[in-house]
Write a structure and sequence with these properties.
By secondary structure, this protein is of the alpha+beta class. The chain has one domain. Helices cover 21% and strands 34% of the residues. The longest helix has 18 residues.
Length: 103
Amino acid sequence: MRIVAVYLTQRLYGGPEEGGWYYDAGELCTDPALTAFGVTFAEGHEDRARTMALEVQAHLDRDWNVGDHAREISSVLSPGRFEARVHDGWPPLAFPAERPRYE
């Protein structure tokens, strides 16, 4: 099963090592207007799921990623961007599951 889900993605500060490093993190959107984009596809329909994610992303970029949300997540002024992602199985509530560590 493939599921298209919408996340609010942000770039977070990881730590001071090597002059500072950052990582991308996201939270599953629970706003009813955004959860309506969630779509489930049966096995064997991976291409349809990717195509739907691209269509949802185009809608998000047109109607949701505006104003401050239009900034790239690499900008210190960015509050984050809405992204459509395809998952194999139920989508996680957030990613990454654990805060990354510098090694």
